[in-house]
Structures are given as C-alpha cells and as structure tokens.
C-alpha cells in the first residue's frame, strides 16, 4: 500500500533484484554473470553459457561434460507427446505449437513439478534444455510435412537440432561446421537479457508458484509478439517488401518518420539500449562472413546495410536514440541457414531458454519474492445504480 505510481510498460520500475545479467543501455554494455558478451561470443559456446547463466559460474571440464551428458539423455519426446503434433493444422505457426508442447510437459513429467524441490527443479531444467530443440525441430517438420527424426545423442545440442530439422531418415545428414558455429553464436547472443517482456512473464507466472514448464510456456507466448521475439521475422518481411517495391530505402525511411500507417523500422530501437546494441554489433561483424559462407541473399543484406546507414544519419533516429537491435541482422542469417521466416522466433526461444530458466530459479530461491501483483489507477465510472434491462 502507500502511494500507487503509474508506470506503463514498467519503464522505471524494477520488479526484482537479479545477479544474472547486467546491461548498461547508454554505453551499449551487456554481461552475463559479469562476463562481457563479446568474450563469451568469441571464446565460449552455448552449452557453457547455459551452465553459466543457470548455475552462476563457468563450468569446469568435468562439469560441462556431465551437464551435456545429462541433456543428451533427455532429448527424446514421449511417443504420446510426439502424437500431439498430429493435431495441429499443417500451416500452424511453430511458436504456439512450441508453447503448447512445453505446456504439455507438465502432464508428462508430474514428478518434476515442485518448484521448491531442488532435485525436481534440476530434472525439469534438464528436460527443458534437452527437449525444446526436439520440439522445435518437430514443429518445423510438421509444417513441411516431413517425417520426424529421433534425436542422435552422439551429437551436441546445436548439431542435433540442425539434424532433426534439416535431415531425413533415409539419408545421413552432413553437418556443416560453419552453420553449427553460427547458430551456436546466435544462441549465445540471445541467451539472456534481464527483465525483458518474456523473462518478466516467466517470473510473473512463476511467482504464483506455477511449475517451470508452465512458466516457460507463458514466456514463449510472450516472445511470439512482433515487438519482442517476432521482430526478427518482421525485419525480413520488411526487407522483402522494400525490395519488391524497387529497393527505395529513402522512401521507406520517410514513411517511418511520417509514421504512415504506424510503420516502424523493425529491428531498430530498444527500451534499454540508447546506443548500438552490442549483440547487433557482434552479428554485424560476423554477418558478412557467415552470409559469405552460407550463401546468403546479398540483395537483402545490401538493403539492410543501406537502411541502417540512412537511419543512423537521420535526425528522427538520432534524436530518439534508435539504433539497430539484435534482430536487425539475425533474420538474414537464419534465412541463409535455410530456416523459413516463421521459424526465426522459435530460434530466439531456443537461445533464450537458459535465461528464462536461470531467472525462474533465481526467483524461487529469493526470500524477497512475492506473488507478482501490480496495482492500477482506476479511471472507470464512479459508483452508480443498476438499471433494469427494459429501462436501458
Ligand atoms: N521505428 C520508428 N520509430 C520508432 C521505433 C522504430 N523501430 N522505435 C521507437 N520509435 C520511436 C517511437 O515512435 C517514439 O517516437 P515518438 O516519441 O515520436 O512517438 C520513440 O521512438 C520512443 O519509442 P517507444 O515506442 O516509446 O519506445 P519503447 O521503449 O516503448 O519501445 C521497442 C521499444 C523495441 C518496442 C521499439 O523500439 C520498437 O517497436 N522497435 C521495433 C520492433 C523491434 O525491433 N523489436 C525488437 C526489440 S530487441 C529484441 C527483443 O526484445 O525481442
């Protein structure tokens, strides 16, 4: 109680204390557990970063091997869960398929739902890390009408995901190490971003003591929105549209500035970064290299670069401190990897999973945690008397 302050979008309100991720939006700094994102991107890998986020320290060799092995042992989906995919329409968007299947994990693993039992939390953590790539690959296979592949536990997490996504049961799948490394890097860059919309959703749902699967499922749904995880697909659609209309970048930027039909420059701007998003800087640096190797769409990359250049030189964007965010270049890379636009946000979810888990676990251990229950400023009618239906 006390004075209620109005803060739409929680622009100035901290919902918790956290020791997972540090962002300085003015300086363009991002660190996981104190380690600069640039160093992790260059020297670490996604499994190690997942461990770091969830357990707080970089793993030793023995710890990371144990962690990877545990994950490998849980990659299979229950055959009944596999049948779940049959029920969706062929053209179902993979994001709601992903969140539904994750929500359904609560029905299959009733032995790991207690948020205060350390062993159960550990089990649900491993199950999620292991099964989300399988679920994601099946959501893709379903959408293209191809047979599902069982996971191959001799492969690492990223390798396995790529094979289950692009492989066929009838022939061996040749893993391209450049593709593996590029996807691993993108997962590292997406792994956490403190109290963003989906992570705050995971925390809010979890604050009611809902189980980890239920909380993560809610986070996936929050990520689905075009202003959040959906932005990476929206960027590519925007670039395509500009190309179709003759590649006139200046005309498009004018449209954005005039706010015609509410058009925004997708992949630009961020609630916290008022400087170049450090993740976008890393991707931009590697985009040429990765696209060169994977054979990306040079025309779209050129449009993207020109768009960035034009926007960064324009007062509208300068005054509002709008810079490219993580999503500006990722779509181009995902596409060069062979993913359809609809899978882009699923890839974001795969990358963000360890961050969501880390936040949920941190919250459950924090004695200061209370059920999330914001207040409001009521602006509706004052008290009035009921009117009978024939008198309205
Ligand atoms: N294009 C054009 N104008 C913009 C943009 C944009 N992308 N972003 C913000 N603005 C303008 C906005 O119109 C407003 O101007 P004015 O004061 O004249 O009305 C001003 O900048 C402040 O914007 P805001 O909407 O109050 O800022 P916010 O902090 O609420 O929104 C955002 C942050 C990321 C939702 C927004 O920048 C946006 O919609 N960007 C495009 C979508 C996008 O790329 N999202 C991905 C974000 S990064 C990854 C993730 O979180 O998933």
From TrEMBL:
An MF annotation (GO) of this entry: citrate synthase activity
Swiss-Prot/TrEMBL keywords: Acyltransferase, Transferase, Tricarboxylic acid cycle
Domain of life of the source: Bacteria
Protein's name in the database: Citrate synthase
CC per GO annotation: cytoplasm
PANTHER family, per the entry: CITRATE SYNTHASE
GO biological process: tricarboxylic acid cycle
Transmembrane spans: none
Signal peptide range: none
Pathway annotation: Carbohydrate metabolism; tricarboxylic acid cycle; isocitrate from oxaloacetate: step 1/2
Active-site feature positions: 270, 327
Family classification: Belongs to the citrate synthase family.
